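Weekly modeling sync, notes
Attendees: S.R. (lead), two postdocs, one rotation student

Agenda item 3: backlog of single-chain predictions. S.R. asked that every request posted to the team notebook include the full sequence so nobody has to chase files. The rotation student volunteered to paste the first one in as an example of the format we agreed on. Action items at the bottom.

Example entry:
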Amino acid sequence: MKALARRSIDWLRARDIRIVAYLTAIGLLLLVFVVIARLVAGSQTRAFDEAILLALRRTPDTPLGGKGFANVVMQLTALGSGPVAGLIVIIATAFFVVAGHWRYALLALVMSLGTWLWMWLLKGYFERERPTIVTHIDPTGGHSFPSGHSMISAALYLTLAMLIARTLKRRRLRVFVVCGGVFLTAMIGVSRCYLGVHYPTDVIAGWTFGAMWALVCAVIVEWLGARGTPDVPPPLAE
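Predicted structure, as returned to the notebook:
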């Protein structure tokens, strides 16, 4: 136990800037989520939420862009659905197992199961009903807060982006991969508002909590890499 504590302290000292940044970001994201949750619980975000939902419609029943664009958005929003996300996790986990990176495979499973558990607990606790001011283009059941698609996409795509970025040597490639994960997450969240199935605060809360969970997974990756074998693929050639 003492040896483990000593290794952990040495690891923190060697990575103080990165870990402090991670932990600070986790704390800030948690604070933002708590503030949003309190405002939502007190019905203080209604005007904000409804104004944005209506701004995305020509009429409460007709979204901007017409039926064709709405169909495209419905296809894109599926990237944050449980079945698609689950398939991606299975493929990623299988890849890590085949590549011999057992810790990353375990991390992918913990990330996905943890996201599902947190989503189930939070939705059950807040029990917020879905928007009624606009017609749902993509009818769905369950509670509204926080947005499951937004939480899943933030946790999944940001975690995968972080793992992929660790294999890349060139900074611009790492930045591109992380930006790609952020773009997918943002696109999926916005699509939920466009389809009228979530309030903007549902989406923001989902992004916030999902990103926080992704950063927790990033800290776990850093910790795993410090124990014995780094378990990180070699960087790609220039």
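Discussion: group reviewed the output briefly. The first strand starts at residue 57 and ends at 59.
Action items: rotation student to repeat for the remaining queue; S.R. to check formatting next week.
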